[in-house]
From TrEMBL, chain A:
Residues 621-896 form the GCVT N-terminal domain. Residues 524-605 form the SoxA A3 domain. Belongs to the GcvT family. Keywords: Oxidoreductase. This is Sarcosine oxidase subunit alpha family protein. Residues 917-1002 form the Aminomethyltransferase C-terminal domain. It comes from the Bacteria. It comes from Ruegeria sp. PrR005. Residues 172-420 form the FAD/NAD(P)-binding domain. It holds the Pfam family SO_alpha_A3. GO terms for molecular function: sarcosine oxidase activity. One of its GO terms (biological process) is tetrahydrofolate metabolic process.
From TrEMBL, chain B:
It holds the Pfam family SoxG. InterPro entries: SoxG, TrmE/GcvT-like. It comes from the Bacteria. It comes from Ruegeria sp. PrR005. This is Sarcosine oxidase subunit gamma.
From TrEMBL, chain C:
One of its GO terms (molecular function) is sarcosine oxidase activity. Gene3D superfamilies: Folate-binding superfamily. GO terms for biological process: tetrahydrofolate metabolic process. Pfam families: SoxD (PF04267). InterPro entries: SoxD, SoxD_sf. It comes from Ruegeria sp. PrR005. Signal peptide: none annotated. This is Sarcosine oxidase subunit delta.
Amino acid sequence: MSTRLAKQGRLIDRSKQVTFTFNGTTMRGFEGDTLASALLANDQMMMGRSFKYHRPRGVVASGAEEPNALVGLGEGARFEPNQRATTTELFDGLKAASQNHWPNLDFDIGAVNTYLSRFLPAGFYYKMFIHPAPFWKHVYEPIIRRSAGLGKAPDRELVDADTYEHFHVHTDVLVIGGGVAGLQAAKVAASSGARVLLIEQTAHWGGRAPVDGGTIDGLSPDEWVSRTLAELEAMDNVTLRARTMGAGVYDHGYALGYERVADHTPGVPGPRHRLWRIRAKQIVSATGAIERPLSFAGNDVPGVMLAGAMRDYVVNWGVTPGQRVVVATNNDDAYRTAIILKQAGVDVLRILDARKEGGGALADEARGLGIRVDPGKAIAKVKGGKRVKKISICNQDGVGGAREEVEADAVAMSGGWSPVVHMWSHCGGKLIWDRANAHFRPDPDRPPLGADGKGFVVAAGSANGPLALDQVMADADAAGKAAAKAAGFAAKRTKAPEGAAMAENAMEAVWLMPANAEVQLRMKSWLDFQNDVKVSDVQLAAREGYESVEHTKRYTTLGMATDQGKLSNINGLAILADALNADIPQVGTTTFRPPYTPISMGAIGGEARGEVFQPVRKTPIYDWSNANGADWEPVGQWRRPFAYVRPGESVHDAVNREVKNTRENLGLLDASTLGKLIVKGPDAGKFLDMLYTNMMSTLKPGKCRYGLMCSENGFLIDDGVVARIDEDTFLCHTTTGGAERIHGHMEEWLQTEWWDWKVYVANVTEQYAQIAVVGPKARKVLEKLNAKAGGGMDLSAEALPFMEWRDGRIGEFDARAYRISFSGELSYEIAVPASQGLAFWEALVDAGKEFGVMPYGTETLHILRAEKGFIMIGDETDGTVIPQDLGLGWAISKKKDDYLGKRAQERSHMADRDRWKLVGLETVDGSVLPDGAYAVGEGVNANGQRNMIGRVTSTYYSANLGRGIAMGLIQHGPDRMGEIVEFPGTDGKTYKAKIVDPVFYDKEGAKQNV
Amino acid sequence: MSKPVSALMGAAYDGIVRVEECGLQGMITLRGDLASKPVAAAATGATGQDMPGQRRANVAGQSGLCWMSPDELLVLVPHAEVGDKLAAMTKALGNAHSLAVDVSDARAMFRVSGANAREVMAKLAPVDFAPGAFGPGDFRRSRLAQVAGAFWMEEDGSFRIICFRSVADYVFKLLKVAAQPGSAVGVF
Amino acid sequence: MLILHCPYCGVDADETELAAGGEAHLKRFGPGSSDDELHGYLFTRENPKGVHLERWRHASGCGKWFHAARCTATLEVFGTYKAQVSGPPQEIRDAISAKRPGWSWREFS
């Protein structure tokens, strides 16, 4: 059984007991425990089931690389699946539940898959579910989806109770990893004066060294870590951050740090996670090394663990995973585990050393403690279901015969150590194969390159290859100095600390145990624990022709689990290389991609959730509209009232009411969102002549002109009314969505093409609240305001004719009034400073009561303009429409040599007589045409579909006309007036509409010219 | 005349910093050759402040000059004086090719003050806010999460932020999230 | 996530402050140009693996357009320069030559 030891446990505080539950059972641990160590202390070795075969799985590691011990944490609005028990700090009240089983962890129906495993080899899904094709959608996919996936998704009805944030930070040197290498690198880099940020993914500093022993400068690793930490904390130019993982390294020294601020203190005010968006001149990757499992039959049985992890549980948390332990290894390091277990009073039955020559000084020490050491031996098979029961032992160089069995309850395995090269590799750092240690390590000659073309990542300590403490400290010291220098600082010439550890014999690569294991053993030798990929699967992939490691990964799912192959990668590709008869470096590794371990979606989103998920732009009238029934419509980031709905009314009712009232009485539209750009300078007229298809330079001050803008490709991009303010100054109105875009468009041409033209542009869109006062009684309400408060602006038809503007006072407001109309009614668009916009609006509402004033929304705006045949950018245009298509030839100057888009509009296709042209459409029965419906003509196209001859671009119910009206682009449309065209709807009906003039209402324009 | 109001009418929030909307602030966009005499005369005359260097703000109270780009200044004057100041500037600019325009109401202004002000800013803008990198009088145009913003640091270590009026509510809510209790980073 | 130096406001700008603007130094062809010239101007673009000249705008910053000389394969930046030129200035060409001897891009080398 696994249990708490009486002594040891450098990270736990035995005076502080913590209560938690696992699958509803109450358990106890100590402050400082991880969930994994606490579960082990409660003899809960089995922590989950595997993905494919639902095999019982126990914890195999002690840190971020853990593939098995994934649990659902918390509940309700704080539930989160797939959390690693090994990286979950225990806290009082923690609730955890195991995953991937039904009905429960001990008895699981899905485990039947393990008996079917020989029918479920690599690529099974690809091979099986191809035929018959219709089965995929209706049979296979639903079944697979139900059984696939790890953990449970959080309840969709609940909103995450926590908050998250980003934090931008710049540093000269970022050190990722707070082990002894990271601490040393940070210290020497900081002593150069460089700003240093040191981040560590766990809650503790020092990494493995305090567990693994040895001395640094004569001190124990723990003492050295404390001393160095104190030194770093005393330096102003150093920032230390625990619980912050280096998640990814990106171009130009960008790195992400994932801080788990409050995972261990849920409910405490403040963000749960913080994503550090780091810009570093140099990055030191001091991420240590990860131990590799050995591939033997039954290496996934709960109780089989990495030797280093088992050592961690004893030393860090005072927990032993078993009472009778067998150690299997190909290197000296695992002897440390045997020694520590033995010293803790645990029975170490055997050390099976795959090497014929066995170990060095550590082996001697183990023997001295009375531990039996068997060189050249291997595990043939681990027996047991939910727990290790028996170990059968064989020779490493055989097929697994001539076995001897011992009863044991835990196995510590070590296949050697692989540097964590993720931070080196994320941004393109290359690796070399280190034959002596059988691992890939960073190639110092091919680092990831920064903006200056030089390397910006330096690997330090065991992340760089060295595993022995003396080499680690020297390497880290050099890395810190190199990083400081590359960041532009001169590191002090200090001596590297001296690490001392026991000498070790060379390791020996062991990819399969025993070396020539027969197929029955290989079929139970796991490579990827979470995804259930076995040695035999990779060999099958190789036999089936998968030569690329990337293809094999996807075919077998090796390394595709949430641990992303941290344990399985090297073993898997070694098996593949062997099967392909190739060298390991030839086969290569799969690509290392960020994040290092999964990070929360909340952290990625940061503050952008709830009310600030995205910006909502509001006009000064927003609150008034909100309080007066506005049914909001997003227009870009703006919110505009679609209609002002009164109690008891439907939105449709409201629109019909607003449409009629505006034509008959008085309507108010909040038009503040329309873009307003000031264009000023001696060359302003020349500039606008290039931007608009019309001639703007001839416009007289005081007057307005409607203009069209095209891209260089000839297509319409925006429209609006231009007012000439004075000789040098124009005010250009843009569409609501166009203000920033057209401002940018103007700046682009001024800065990058006509930089010698004297023109300045300013965006004054939001300086003004602009209100359209529309309808037969528009003048009356304004004159009433003037009469009441002494405004002096003469708003008569003579003083302010159509398409002119004036500055002055209306009522008590400084205003600019434009006699322009997008409705065909008598209309004034009046701009007042935004700070007085609401007051002006309220004054109009108040004064307008006697005239039947009603505010109206965007839908009424649309209907009114459609009744008049006015186009709308985005409805009649879609990026492929030129002004000539819309009957707007009158707005294209024939006198100008040039304007943006002119040359493109001369292309043969643009001048083609067959282009679809704007017409009005009237349904035969008065109904409303479906929006976007296509008109069909004679014959079929190459695909057998009806030929299309046009489409609906705008379609509305007109309450004024009592029928549906529409505009559309129809081939030869203007030449086909009176013809009936068919529009098949998606509802199966075919709509018939007559081609008519697009102006449906007041064709003479009498109403706007009063 | 009707009483003008700012976007959020002085809304305030106290978290790990104090966030307050500053109310009405006169602002004039001045574009022109910043090295030319008329432009400098118009700018300094309106504010009593020296011409700012690149990415600097010379501000005292409600009057000041902020460097927006090589050909643009933001001229801060009291809101009630914008009309007179603009007229005086236009006069000073004479025939020099330039543009001076009132943008007071197109913007909102916030103050972020308190010991954690740098950190709150660093949560929202991709800018180095470390004491050695950003100090009093330093001015930046950048983004605040998803919208454009400009800000500078004052002598007392507080920040003033300018954003568009339409997103004043968004920026205020952003600042509230960034300033929520328990969210001090402890770096600056 | 690039960092590009804005030659106007002097900021080493984070990519999130910038907007990419495509290929640099296009020559505009307007009325009077041939179909081929217009086609080249509107649609034909370089797609090099290596030295590239491109346009960027410091959109969430000072608002100015500038040029960047950059390696598309390694993302090394040889230099940034102002927009008001029709080709890379000599110091930029020299900077590229120092790192990528024998480079050429359109008519420039």
